Amino acid sequence: MADIIGPTSHFFYSQRLKLHYVDWGNHGQPLAIMVHGGRDHCRNWDFVALELRKHFHLVAPDLRGHGDSDWAIGGAYSITDHVLDIGQLMNALQPQEPVILIGHSLGAGVVLQRSGVFPDAVKLVIAIEGLGPPGSMVRETPAHERMESWVSDMLALAQRKPREYTTIEQAMARMREANPHLSEDLARHLTIYGVRRNENGTFSWKYDNYTRATSPYQFNLKDAMDIWSRIRCPTLLVRGDTSWAGDWERDGRLTAFRSAELATIGNAGHWVHHDQLAEFLVVVRRFLDL
């Protein structure tokens, strides 16, 4: 991508945090906001943006605690915080019509909640792997045990130092270990924009370690489905066939949506748009009528 002119960097504020986003231009076209997942960053959308930027005014934020955005004092990274931040980004951009929201993983959960709580402000929504953990991953434990575990986790994270990599190649190897589907070129791209250079010459991931914390409040599927049921715009739900996300038709989550199209991409895991970019874009182009 070295020969491609990339996006410009900008900032906005939410709850006193200075948050970063990139803008691919084309301001005369409909606004589409692309929201990344946990411990990721806004430049993970670059290869998707290169295919869609002719049709839309594309903007991709770094969520609080990620990329080049501020870290939250106290480590508050709930999905409701992110929903608020996306609203503040929309306020800063001042769209003249409802927007298109695209999200992956945590970001997909954010755009779905934003679309359900403020349905009039959203024209279309695309959510990749964003319907929460499957039932098999949710353990029913007493509230006091969850709170005790969370306190222990937070104390442990306070002691944890960001891992340092001597070279970009070392960090890139860790990236590919986490997702074996990644090509070498894509892993390098994600790594270059995902690390910062430390004063001693090493590299560390940009995200705040506190984003690793698991909430003491269990995933509330009932509330989530209630919010999803309020989405009035066309909705595309995308999953990978080798992902851990589960079968949304079988577990009943799909029934919450008024009109949602489900697309399952073959030979793709959780990062569908990285694992099978061409197939993902075929589905997205059809949904967007491009």
Strand order of the largest sheet: 1-2-4-3-5-6-9-10
Counting helices, strands and paired strands, the structural category is alpha/beta
What are the secondary-structure elements, in order, as H or E?
EEEHEHEHEHHHEEHEEHH
| Gap between N and C termini | 23 Å
Would you write up a description of this structure?
The protein is of the alpha/beta class and 290 residues long. It has a domain at 8-134 and 219-288: Alpha/Beta hydrolase fold, catalytic domain (Rossmann fold), CATH 3.40.50. Helix content is 33%, strand content 19%. The protein has helices at 46-52, 79-93, 106-117, 143-159, 168-178, 184-194, 221-228, 272-275, 277-288; strands spanning 8-14, 17-23, 31-35, 57-61, 99-104, 122-128, 195-197, 203-205, 235-240, 260-265. The strands form two sheets. Strands 1-2-4-3-5-6-9-10 form an eight-stranded mixed beta sheet, with helices on both faces. The model has no long low-confidence stretch (mean pLDDT 95).
Topology:
Blueprint: E1 8-14, E2 17-23, E3 31-35, H1 46-52, E4 57-61, H2 79-93, E5 99-104, H3 106-117, E6 122-128, H4 143-159, H5 168-178, H6 184-194, E7 195-197, E8 203-205, H7 221-228, E9 235-240, E10 260-265, H8 272-275, H9 277-288
Parallel strand pairs: 3-4, 3-5, 5-6, 6-9, 9-10
Antiparallel strand pairs: 1-2, 2-4, 7-8
Helix pairs in contact: 2-3, 3-7, 5-6
